[in-house]
Amino acid sequence: MDSTHDGYITDVAYIDNYYEQLSPLAINYLAALNGHLPRNPDDFDYCELGCGNGLSLVVHAATHPGGRFTGIDVIPDHIARARGLADAAGLTNLALYADSIADWVARDDGQKFDFIAMHGLYTWVSDAVRADIHRFIERRLKPGGLVLVSYNAKPGFSAREPLRNIMRRFATPLSTNPLERAHLGLSYLRLMLNAQVPFFRLNPELAKYAESLFDKDPHYIAHEFFHDDWHIFGVDEVAGAMQNSGLAFAGTLPLWQNHADIDVPANVSGLFNAQTERVTREVHKDFLYNTVFRTDLYVAAPADAAPLPRTETLAAMCFRAAVPATDVQFAPLAGANQLSLNTPLHRTVFALLQDQARTFADLAAQPALAGHGRDDLVAALTQWVLSGQVRPTLPAPLPPSHPVIAATNRALLAEAFAAGDRDGALLLSPCYGSAFWFDKTQALALAVLADPAAGEAGATLAELMKHCGLSMEEDGRALDEEALANLAMDLSDDLEASGALTQARLLGVVG
Ligand SMILES: C[S@@+](CC[C@H](N)C(=O)[O-])C[C@H]1O[C@@H](n2cnc3c(N)ncnc32)[C@H](O)[C@@H]1O
């Protein structure tokens, strides 16, 4: 028999995922890019609703020491796993609750948040739970606070609705077990795909999407399609609901969709530029691009509040070049239109951010940029960020060797090796307030390099391998000191040769 909470399956765990877009730093940049003041990175409260196994929260709590983090999820096993990881990392700024959102709506403890984030929640819950999400926001978001929400979007996902419906119609009467239902639903699709039925012949894009589902984890299939609720929203519908909760639309992902000079192709830009209301522009873009999924930002502000100048909202945010000068790509930026980074202004901005992080205000005050207008400077900087070659950074990041970072990396590594079916391991990037995936063995070697307590490399490796539950035997014999030292050297050589070390340095994972 399956168990549910308000129609949401609670007896099947969701897959492990990390989402950089939920990082307070990333949310702050998205807000500032759209003319909204970022929250104070040194002192803030952050809540993730439906936080699942807590991977994102653990990464963000470890890398944002100025934040106090809260995670809420109704599945106790999810919270138990998140807690296990947070405890192993020794995090003191993360509180986790195996509660429903309704529990928090009913509780009147006065706790309020600068950030409320939710990923993979809004579409899959009942109207009643969505109403609780809105009540939670209304009661617990600070003035000027930011909400990041993602959902299956119109019009792109609407076309996929028949696939969900037919899988459920077929599988639900045959089993009460959500994972079995997922397998049964997929087997039905396989039959229809192989038979090349008219539905798939006439809808080749849906056939492609259906094929892609066979590569997914059954736990994902169960959570995507087999809850009672699955609501596909237009951005205007979500914006309307948020407006009723006192929030205004404040931006969207991917980042290029916030750059009005490249977010639509030139042949239709005239039509779009006549459209000044942002949410309406977003609705048109969703039609243009057949959007299937949206991640949007809202701010606690009246819907008609005018955005502030970017020069003001970006002023205190820090930026740094994320590639060496020798590797810079000046090619026109991808987007619906093309923008070049190969101008004297772009080159000067990049050079000034090459060896040190600077706030926008500091950058703008540099003599090398005298004579350039502030708006041009904002455009050049944000275009660099769009290209991924300059990144927002935290103003005072912990060093990669900091005990909290090292302990969290160890916990993430142990978790990755314990999850036998996962190829990669996450390692923290304290300066970018996030984490990046590495091959597990390379992650182990990087953790040896980054370990602050590192003495002799072989001994550090042995200690980490033990921590991760890895065998230290070869041909049935325990590796001795010399063998461990050689292994550490081989791993280190492989890091250099494969480019993983350079990559890890660029990403701020090792110093
Ligand atoms: C699809 S998972 C997404 C997990 C994670 N945010 C991610 O994207 O990987 C949705 C999560 O929301 C939680 N959830 C669903 N309904 C909830 C409710 N009413 N209160 C609290 N959590 C809920 C589920 O337990 C589940 O972990």
CATH architecture of the largest domain: 3-Layer(aba) Sandwich
> How many strands, which pairing sense, and closed or not: the largest β-sheet?
7 strands, mixed
What is CATH's topology name of the largest domain?
Rossmann fold
Percent strand equals: 15-25%
CATH classification, class level of the largest domain: Alpha Beta
Number of strands: 16
CATH superfamily of the largest domain: Vaccinia Virus protein VP39
Poorly predicted ranges (pLDDT <50, ≥5 residues)?
none
Strand order of the largest sheet: 5-4-3-6-7-9-8
Structural class: alpha/beta
- Discrete helix count: 22
The hetero compounds bound to this protein are: S-adenosylmethionine
Count of discrete domains = 4
Q: Look at the structure and give the mean pLDDT.
A: 93
Rg estimate, integer Å: 24 Å
**Percent helix among the residues?**
40-55%
Shape: globular
Beginning-to-end CA distance, first to last residue: 51 Å
